[in-house]
Specification:
Number of helices: 37
Largest sheet: 3 strands, antiparallel
Shape: elongated
Number of strands: 35
Strand order of the largest sheet: 3-4-5
Helix content: 40-55%
């Protein structure tokens, strides 16, 4: 299946030709045109003037003349190719004369003239030289042997260039260029003085020789085009001077007969109208049904199977790469040019002819190689004045508009009916940005796997996420370490939406983990501490610990250890700073380091408050020209009376005992009494029944709610449950909260079993299985924060404080304090306090009842 242009042109010729078969005509027509626009112009010419097929007119265009000559050589007799206007021979016509086109031999005979040779002075047939001079064939041959030496003399006459550099440049010239040494010599004799001053004005032959001299080490300025000042490959000429391709196109801008813009003209119609690329794309024959996706779109490529749109042309499917020979997703699949993405990227690397940088370029390997940055030029917008990418020329022709300044297209959306910006059209119907991506007609096949869905950068979400992961962890990096390879495989199983969202936001985590994995020296806790805040580095640190790339540590304790020296540095006196440092190590760091459980944020917050309170007290004393040693009890009382202050009784007692200060006293925090306010038993059991029967509540929240409502366990104790603390058997589920095991009721057993079996923790892009904690946290090796669990319980209607209080009141009335402590893990002193409080309340209640009865009976 080929383009309809070839079929229409074949039909026009077959309607005239009586000898050659239609199939043979179609084969010759397809093989005669390398470019489709040329075939279109030929079809337009034959359609408007069909007599040209049999007129043998020497004025016929070269494309049609070449096609007719091929048909005649294949056996056609009705159609007549044009003959030479000079000799009448049936040949390829290459030169234009006033009487018509002529063949090459006639062109050479007409170009040959007779006259006086510029070297020997004899009357002979001459060959034109540079300028107005001409030489006979004999003199031209006699100058060849000595041309090299004379070129060296001419160059050194105009510039101080070493003879060895000139000879090396002559040797580096191509074979066809070396045969033209005589012409180069004559050009140097006539124009050498001016061309060495302005090399851009020289001929193409001089330009090649000049560039070889410059690259060989001659102290000559680079050839530059005055229009843009570039030194890239100069392949064109503008007003007699060499020019780059871009400036040549700009110099030949003309008014488009379609839109009126002054721009490059891409197509000439049969009626003489000349159109730019934008207007050409709007022509009916430029749009067709894509043979791959079936959509009627602008055609970017005419494949042997039929027209392809730009999306399908750039799609890749499994094929054997013609470069590396491996079976991969290849561009131009199914053809002799099939090439995989890595080989295509490697082949597209070239030196940009605009900026001179070695990058992936369009038209690599040609004189037009241009990188993506230079292919999309930026210039000031005529509306906002910002230097941005050009989007469209202004209507008055004064310049270009950027994307932001182009007036938006507002129409009524076909789906929602609101007047909004048009994001896309389906069969001519407009859709807004919210509705267009939801339409199945807007889906396109993924260029990697072929899945038809909404694409992101021409890829489906899954392939786009895999591409991003491979950019973060390349194949060579994954092959260097099995742990990194396992990490990448886990990421491949993650949700594509999370990965794409993280990359598009450019999060610190994505950048940081790429840097850390690429350089093993940076894979340390110390580097992560300096790379960002705890929130920014938490995900990276956790995923590295999970895969064994970093050793685990108590993160909150480490942060406290980093914070402490910086905080104590605010104390100006070295002896006082040393004293407070010793107190912090004895009072706080020792207790935290001896703790077998990971530190909790609550344990560290009050310690920070106390340290900052000490620093504030010392700053207040120094402001009164005092010190810690001179601090008196009156000073402490005055400072405490100045407003809410942290409790410093531990520090003042320790400093007095240590001898750093006098014996001072400060108030101790009052221990909060037990609050007997609680839920009623009926309400507590109703909440328990509602939570355990609701299938929408996750097992972890349901398990925690049951422990709190039935046994009064604090959230801080629940989150510290380890995997071995929950034993699931066929008969029952046993939980170890204290020293003695606790058998859970049947209503709570399924939730406990579900929580113990599903210990997934949120990690970077994927969920990770926590090996130690039943309630895993966001940090690797840490359990969930108690505040987080309390928030989840409140979300399902469980008030944590009231629920715990009501359960402890009920248990304290039924169990001795020792049993209560052993079963629930409650501290023995707290169990005794609850038992005493409940007993005191009951005694007071009984006394009040007796007094009321006696009063009523008149006793």
């Amino acid at each position: 299946m080929h383009d309809p242009v070839f079929a229409a042109l074949t039909a026009q010729i077959a309607a005239v030709e009586r000898v050659l078969s239609r199939e043979r005509i179609a084969e010759i027509v397809i093989g005669s045109f390398q470019q489709l626009p040329v075939a279109r112009r030929t079809l337009d010419l034959v359609t408007t003037t069909p007599g040209l097929l049999t007129a043998a007119d020497p004025q016929t265009t070269p494309a049609l003349a070449s096609l007719l000559l091929r048909l005649h050589e294949a056996g056609a007799r009705t159609v007549q190719p044009p003959r030479c206007a000079h000799c009448g021979a049936l040949r390829q016509l290459l030169q234009v004369t006033p009487t018509g086109r002529i063949c090459a031999p006639c062109g050479r005979r007409l170009a040959a003239t007779s006259g006086l040779c510029g070297r020997c002075g004899q009357e002979r047939r001459l060959q034109p030289g540079p300028g107005e001079t001409a030489y006979c064939k004999r003199c031209w041959a006699e100058m060849k042997p000595e041309a090299g030496d004379r070129i060296v003399e001419e160059v050194r006459r105009h510039r101080r260039v070493a003879a060895v550099i000139v000879r090396r440049a002559l040797e580096q010239m191509a074979a066809t260029e070396r045969d033209r040494r005589v012409r180069l010599l004559l050009e140097l004799q006539i124009h050498g003085a001016s061309w060495f001053v302005d090399p851009a004005a020289g001929s193409a032959l001089f330009g090649i020789f000049y560039d070889l001299l410059h690259r060989g080490g001659a102290r000559l300025p680079e050839r530059r085009y005055r229009g843009c000042g570039t030194t890239r490959t100069l392949t064109e000429r503008v007003e007699g001077r060499v020019s780059c391709r871009r400036c040549y196109r700009i110099a030949h801008h003309a008014v488009c007969d379609g839109c009126g813009d002054v721009t490059n003209l891409e197509r000439v119609l049969s009626d003489g109208r000349r159109l730019c690329q934008r207007c050409t794309n709007r022509l009916p024959d430029e749009n067709a049904t894509c043979v791959s996706c079936g959509n009627h779109r602008l055609i970017a490529y005419r494949s042997p199977d039929g027209p392809l749109c730009s999306t399908c042309r750039g799609s890749s499917r499994q094929d054997t790469c013609t470069v590396c020979g491996e079976v991969r997703a290849c561009l131009f699949h199914g053809s002799e040019k099939a090439i995989c993405k890595p080989c295509s990227d490697e082949a597209s690397v070239d030196v940009c002819t605009i900026c001179g940088n070695e990058r992936q370029c369009r038209w690599a390997g040609t004189a037009r190689a241009t990188c993506e940055q230079c292919a999309n030029p930026r210039q000031p917008c005529v509306s906002c004045g910002e230097v941005r990418l050009r989007h469209r020329r202004a209507e008055d022709g004064s310049g270009y508009l950027c994307w932001a300044c182009v007036p938006p297209i507002i129409e009524t959306c076909t789906s929602c009916g609101d007047d909004r910006l048009v994001n896309g059209r389906i069969e001519g119907r407009p859709f807004c940005p919210l509705c267009y991506p939801r339409q199945p007609e807007s889906f396109r096949p993924c260029t990697s796997c072929g899945t038809v869905t909404r694409l992101i950068a021409k890829l489906c979400p899954h392939c786009r996420a895999d591409q991003m992961i491979r950019e973060m962890i390349p194949d060579d990096l994954a092959a260097s370490d099995a742990r990194i390879a396992h990490l990448r495989e886990r990421w491949f199983q993650g949700a594509p939406s999370k990965i794409i969202y993280a990359f598009e936001r450019g999060t610190v985590a994505c950048t940081l983990i790429t840097r850390v994995l690429a350089d093993p020296r940076l894979c340390t806790h110390a580097y992560l501490d300096e790379a960002g805040s705890e929130f920014q580095t938490r995900a990276v640190r956790s995923v590295l610990i999970d895969h064994g790339l970093l050793p685990p540590r108590d993160e909150l304790l480490a942060r406290f250890e980093l914070w402490l020296p910086d905080a104590l540095a605010e104390i100006p006196d070295p002896s006082e700073r040393r004293t407070v440092t010793q107190y912090a190590r004895w009072r706080h760091l020792r207790a935290l380091r001896r703790n077998t459980m990971p530190s909790r944020s609550g344990q560290l917050s009050w310690r920070r408050i106390e340290i900052m309170g000490i620093i504030e007290l010392l700053a207040w004393v120094h402001g009164r020209s005092g010190s810690l040693a001179s601090l008196a009890q009156a000073d402490v009382d005055e400072w405490l009376a100045g407003g809410p202050r942290p409790f410093l009784h531990h520090f003042l007692t320790w400093a007095g005992r240590d001898g750093s200060s006098r014996q001072l006293a400060a108030p101790r925090p009052s221990s909060g009494g037990l609050n007997p306010q609680a839920l009623s038993d009926d309400e507590r059991w109703r909440l328990f029944a509602d939570v355990t029967s609701d299938a929408s509540i996750d097992p972890h929240t349901k398990f925690a709610a049951g422990l709190m409502l039935m046994f009064g366990v604090r959230a801080a104790k629940i989150v510290q449950l380890r995997a071995e603390d929950v034993a699931v058997t066929d008969q029952a589920v046993i939980v170890r909260l204290g020293t003695e095991p606790l058998v859970l009721p049947a209503e709570l057993a399924p939730a406990a079993a579900g929580a113990a079996s599903n210990r997934t923790a949120p990690r970077m892009f994927v969920e990770s299985i926590e090996q130690e904690w039943v309630y895993p946290g966001a940090r690797a090796g840490h359990h969930m924060a108690p505040d987080t669990l309390n928030s989840r319980l409140r979300a399902v209607g469980i008030p944590p404080r009231l629920a715990r209080t009501s359960a402890l009141i009920a248990l304290a009335q039924e169990l001795p304090p020792v049993v209560l402590s052993r079963l629930t893990g409650l501290d023995i002193s707290s169990a005794i306090a609850w038992s005493n409080a409940i007993g005191a309340n009951n005694n007071a209640y009984a006394t009040a009842v007796i007094e009321r009865d006696c009063k009523n009976n008149g006793v």
